[in-house]
Amino acid sequence: MTILDKIIERKKEEITISKSKISIDELKNSEFFGRKSHSLKESIKNRNGIIAEFKRQSPSKGIINNNVAPLDVASAYEQFGASGISILTDKDFFGGSFDDILNVRNQINIPVLRKDFMIDEYQFYEAKSMGADVILLIASCLSPNQVQEFTELAHELDLEVLFEIHTEEELKHFNSKIDLVGINNRNLKDFKVDLQHSVQLKDQLPKDTLSIAESGIYTLEDFKYLKEKGFDGFLMGEYFMRNTDPAKAFEEFSMTI
Question: Distance between CA atoms of 217 and 53, rounded to whole angstroms?
Fold first, then answer.
């Protein structure tokens, strides 16, 4: 069983528990459910293209940074030009929580991506209720039909879709309603990073698709290489979060690009 298999197995258990505690109707009555979402597509075009991530830990790296507050980091990301903020909400494998989004939502004015493993429609209502603007659909977790159905549901809830692929086979999951396509430089099954592989996949996307390079961007040189190859956006977490002061790290990086 791969790490991804273990995550999905645990996610199914979590969703069952959540459904037993809070109904979709209750989620619809939450503070943020009726708010107008910010557009990540537009923000990618108008700011620096970086979706800066708040992430405490990962299955491959263990604890990355467990000593900083989401709002301190997110505020700096916005201040220094980030197009969006990605916040992990998976608890068991990434140390995240719904509160990490709730605690920043009223304090920032750029899009927030709920980064999680979305496998059930219930999670989309959760995402809307916590104030997310964008959700992640991972091709390796879903069938093409699920990607289509979940994209339509997300749009009904005024959420944009970042669709993630890693293999040529997963290109078959793509549909024209998807807002942005993320190409994960890291294989979710063995966690190896291959930037050249991502560039080759990008070249196979339909023309005018907004492309996001995800994960495994460890240096300024990596960033520049991917930008030169035509990526529109960059999902970056560890590069900043592995620093004692992620806010300062992002400020310094933003001055060099």
Answer: 12
**Helix, coil or strand: residue 167:** coil
- Residue 188 pLDDT class (50, 70, 90 cuts): low
Residue 192 has pLDDT above 90, yes or no: no
**Predicted pLDDT of residue 201:** 94
Q: What is the 3-state secondary structure (H, E, C) of 226-257?
A: HHHCCCCEEEECHHHHCCCCHHHHHHHHHCCC
Each residue of 27-78: pLDDT tens digit? 999 999 999 999 999 999 999 999 999 999 998 889 999 999 999 999 999 9
Tokens standing for 196? Answer: 């050249």
Q: Are 198 and 192 in contact (CB under 8 A)?
A: no
Q: Tokens 């060099």 — which residue?
A: 256
CA distance 236 to 185: 11
Single-letter amino acid code for the residue at 97: S
Copy the structure tokens of residue 211: 């492309």
Cα dist from 62 to 98, 132, 212, 250, whole Å: 20, 26, 25, 21
Answer whether residue 220 shows pLDDT above 70.
yes
**242 CB contacts (<8 Å, ≥6 apart)?**
64, 65
pLDDT in tens, 101-132: 999 999 999 999 999 999 999 999 999 999 99
The C-alpha atoms of residue 144 and residue 172 are separated, in whole angstroms, by 7
- Please report how many Cα atoms fall inside a 13 Å half-sphere around the Cα of residue 104, on the Cβ side: 30
